[in-house]
Design a protein that fits this description.
The chain is mainly α and about 675 residues long. It has three domains: about 325 residues, Cytochrome Bc1 Complex, Chain C; about 60 residues; about 220 residues, no CATH class. About 60% of the residues lie in helices and about 0% in strands. It has 26 helices and no strands. Helix 3 crosses helix 11 and helix 19 packs across helix 26. The longest helix has about 35 residues.
């Protein structure tokens, strides 16, 4: 006996009937492009589910492994960048599609009877989609996601009475950590997707039921006329959206944006926290209540009232009275609505909502736009002069600080990705990539411990401008030939020794200033001044070489005593550079060695810092650890040490990270080499 396989399977499972009931095309009205948004949301949710499942095969939800697993997906897994890009931008498209569907439901008054329940489900679906995005921000455990997630967490904390308890429930404690990541991951991959799928199924079932009532008397031909054109429109819209997603993904990839920030540091408070662009309106809205003691009104009460109004709208704006017979159709409700004044209320609500959203979003982008250099300079001049600042001036300063922090965050992200690509992820977690990196920690330590006296290119090492003026030299490029040359040209330059004072308030380093005056007299005349300039260039190059290769002077001295004929200094150094270094060494011996020692030796008696390895990592480590060391400034004498010792305030690793950064070396704390992961 032959058995018809599809019929056999259908008789035993009934799945075909279930699917046909869910996607029954019969509905009231005609095919239209405005119907595509809800269908797009369903398709995009399916895309989120598929790409999310694919990433779950690699992702590890722990604070030590999350960043590394996302980096693995993005950079090491075949087409991982495409899968993650579709998931990342697809979530934004899902929220946009649902938001547009809500607006058009308001515009066409489709919330009226008998669609009240479908309207409520639609609102909850939008909230669930937003919550899915918020929980997804944190999963890479990077700076951007960690700090963006703080915005909704802080909003929850403002809830009267139960706010702090709700926030602790969300975070699994008082701060973001492993418990937070575990809870967000569970919500993101199980609770919220299941809720969205259930809501979508209920919404579709309600619409299909009401559609079948409206189309019950229609012929099969008319039903097909709705089905085929509408499915065609849905397909075209989906192709367009997928094309836009691919363009965004390829654009980010070509721009070198891996959609991944530096590993999360919840304790680092200088990150420019912002939510994703579609939630910026809420960020801007909360600014209106910031510092007024009324944050709870803007964060909880007003949004709650808006949600309540939207939920009650079907009862406020009724198309026709519910008779309870269940026989009314969508078309009947539409006709009654037209008879009672059309859709004015829904369109007013939709228009006001859309305008408010766009205005707040534009204001957020406007507030964060980068001010031009001239405007910033003018405001900073008013600050320096003690003038009164306007609201516009304060906005300029906030925008300046935001972009300094934003640029710094981008630099750290690039550095983390560079180190991960070079060494892989350390066993202790991705946080170790930057925690022991001098390029990252050097400027932070400088800003925290050195910028009260010193500057780095005019700022604190991180781009900020300290409120108190500098009292010592600017250390950007310290030890380079350019830095030394400027010092020798004018020791009293404010960027060098000019700001420094002794304990009694008298100018410091007066011996260098006197030396410069004496040598100018010694080299009188134009030709002599030209010779002096050449000598100063040469000694600057020589001292810079000491920083790169301590002991260069010893090699030069040894070669000076060797037979002539060897024309290059060291391997790979051209003869012209060799001659310059020899000239610089000779000038140092003749003019500088009377005060400055070289390997503990000097021709005079006055004490000044040792020049062996000057400006190099080891020299800077000694200087930061103990400036009063006998090889540096000592605690007594004509130029006693003014800088405090940091060997009790910082660890040797921290001191070395500052030294490596100042010396311009890249890598770990070990003599300028890269860190072992």
């Amino acid at each position: 006996m032959r058995t018809h396989t599809p019929g056999w399977f259908e008789r035993r499972t009934g799945l075909g009937a279930l699917v046909r009931a869910l996607f029954d095309p019969r509905a009231a009205g005609r095919p239209a492009w405005r119907h595509v948004w809800l269908h797009l949301a369903v398709y995009l949710f399916a895309l989120q589910a598929v790409t999310g499942l694919a990433m779950m095969t690699v992702y590890s939800p722990s604070t030590t492994a999350a960043w590394g697993s996302v980096w693995q997906i993005q950079t090491q897994t075949t087409l991982g960048w495409l899968v993650r890009g579709l998931h990342h931008f697809g979530s934004q498209a899902l929220v946009v599609a649902l938001a547009i569907h809500v607006l058009q439901t308001l515009w066409f008054a489709a919330y009226r009877a008998p669609m009240e329940v479908a309207w409520w489900i639609c609102l909850v679906m939008l909230a669930v989609a937003g919550a899915s995005c918020v929980t997804g921000w944190l999963l890479p455990w990077d700076q951007r996601g960690c700090w963006a997630s703080r915005v909704p967490a802080n909003i929850v904390a403002l809830t009267p009475v139960v706010g702090p308890a709700l926030q602790r429930l969300m975070l699994g404690g008082s701060e973001f950590g492993q418990a937070t990541l575990t809870r967000y991951h569970a919500m993101h991959v199980t609770v919220l997707p299941a809720s969205f799928a259930g809501l979508a199924a209920a919404f579709i079932a309600i619409r299909r039921r009401l559609g079948r009532v409206a189309a019950g008397a229609a012929s099969a031909t008319r039903q097909r006329r709705f089905d085929i054109p509408q499915r065609l429109r849905d397909g075209i819209a989906l192709v367009i959206v997928l094309g836009v997603l691919l363009v965004l993904i390829c654009r980010a990839r070509s721009a070198g944006d891996p959609l991944l920030d530096a590993p999360a540091e919840p304790s680092q408070m200088d990150y420019p926290a912002r939510p994703e662009w579609y939630f910026l309106f809420l960020f801007q809205w909360l600014k209106l209540f910031d510092g007024s003691g009324m944050e709870v009104i803007g964060a909880i009460i007003i949004p709650g009232v808006i949600g309540l109004v939207l939920g009650l709208l079907p009862f406020v704006d009724r198309g026709l009275r519910d008779t309870g017979d269940g026989a009314r159709t969508v078309r009947d409700a539409r006709g009654a609505a037209e008879a009672r004044g059309g859709r004015v209320i829904g369109r007013v609500v939709a228009g006001l909502g859309a305008c408010a959203y766009l205005v707040l979003l534009a204001a957020a982008f406007f507030a964060d736009r980068k001010p031009d250099t001239a405007t910033v300079a003018a405001v900073e001049a008013r600050v320096a002069a003690g003038g009164e600042l306007t609201a516009s001036d304060r906005r300029v300063l906030r925008a300046r600080d935001f972009h300094v922090q934003k640029d710094r965050a981008a630099t750290l992200a690039r550095r983390a990705l560079e180190l991960a690509g070079r060494h892989g992820i350390p066993p202790a977690g991705a946080g170790e990539l930057l925690a022991r990196d001098p390029v990252t920690q050097g400027p932070r330590l400088f800003a925290g411990h050195c910028s009260s006296c010193h500057r780095y290119a005019g700022h604190d090492g991180l781009g900020g401008i300290p409120a108190e003026p500098a009292t010592s030299s600017d250390l950007a490029g310290f030890g380079t030939s350019a830095w030394v040359r400027r010092l020798l040209a004018d020791p009293g330059d404010p960027e060098r020794f000019g700001r420094m004072k002794k304990a009694d308030g008298e100018p410091a380093h007066t011996r260098m200033i006197e030396w410069r005056e004496d040598i100018d007299e010694e080299y009188g005349g134009a030709e002599a001044q030209a010779e002096l300039s050449r000598n100063l260039d040469a000694v600057s190059a020589y001292l810079a070489a000491e920083g790169r290769q301590p002991g260069v002077g010893l090699t030069i001295d040894a070669r000076a005593a060797s037979p002539p004929g060897v024309e290059s200094f060291g391997r790979g150094v051209p003869p012209a550079a060799d001659a310059t270094l020899r000239l610089g060494r000779e000038f140092f011996t003749d003019e500088c060695n009377a005060c400055h020692g070289y390997q503990g030796k000097r021709t005079g008696t006055r004490h000044a810092p040792e020049m062996y390895g000057h400006g190099g990592v080891d020299w800077l480590v000694r200087m930061i650890s103990n400036p009063a060391d006998d090889s540096l400034y000592r605690s007594t004498g004509r130029e006693p040490a003014q800088m405090p010792s940091f060997q009790e305030r910082l660890t040797q690793e921290q001191i070395r990270m500052i030294a490596v950064w100042l010396a311009g070396a890249t890598g770990s704390t070990q003599n300028g080499s890269e860190p072992d992961p």
